[in-house]
Amino acid sequence: MRITISGPPGSGKTTVCRILGEHLGLEIVSSGHIFRQMAEEREMSLAEFGHLCETDPEADLILDNRMVEIARNSDNICLEGRLSAHMLTRHSIEAFRVLMLADIDERSKRVVTREGGTWEQRKREIEDREASEAKRYKAYYNIDINDKDVYDLVIDTTNIPAEDVAGRIIREVRKHSRDACKG
Fold first, then answer.
1. Residue 61: what pLDDT?
2. Most CB atoms closer than 10 Å: which of 12, 52, 76, 131?
3. pTM of the model
4. 4 has which bridge partners?
5. Alpha-carbon gap, residue 128 to 133, rounded angstroms
6. How far is residue 39's CA from residue 52's CA, in Å, rounded to a whole number?
7. How far apart are CA 90 and CA 68, in angstroms?
8. What's the CA gap between 136 and 81, in Å, rounded?
9. 117: how many CB neighbours lie within 10 A of its CB?
10. What pLDDT score was predicted for residue 180?
11. How far apart (Å, rounded) are the C-alpha atoms in residues 164 and 172?
12. Strand pairing of 96-101 and 153-156?
């Protein structure tokens, strides 16, 4: 089974992927983790690296091509990343595609809990990152990050614990698999 988990920063993607991996025995691949490693390799902050990527598409292209190759070569995986559903769709790679959304204030609180800092600082960083990503994805791939048509399931995680979100995804994946077998 191949699952993609997409959504903005702080929506709970990484936590839910970890839970799905534990419950379903899936390998977890996080584009955010790879992106952070790429920023660290260049001795840049995430914000600095994001701004660099706005003028130099190489990092995004490397990351996205790596995610597609990983997906092609694995049937037992959960891919976490903003573009994972879009990229797999473009490359005709079968997957159950999930979009997780949450209120910006809640997402900011979650990032503060995870990484520290102030709520105001994290909210501003998230807004800047989202604007940067939307601009890059439109310019590089002609993808509107707000287009929900590629997803099999959209979940607002604002007031739902991660275990419950994962449980809902598991139920929907199993239902989707049964329905695919019937067709």
1. 83
2. 12
3. 0.87
4. 79, 97
5. 9
6. 10
7. 10
8. 15
9. 13
10. 61
11. 12
12. parallel
Q: How far apart are CA 13 and CA 11, in angstroms?
A: 6
Q: Which residues of the chain have pLDDT under 50?
A: none
Full strand arrangement of the beta sheet holding 153-156: 27-30, 77-80, 2-6, 96-101, 153-156
Q: Could you tell me the residue ranges of all domains in the chain?
A: 2-176
What is the rounded CA–CA span in Å between residue 84 and residue 81? 5
Domain 2-176 CATH superfamily? P-loop containing nucleotide triphosphate hydrolases (3.40.50.300)
63 touches 37 (CB < 8 A)? no
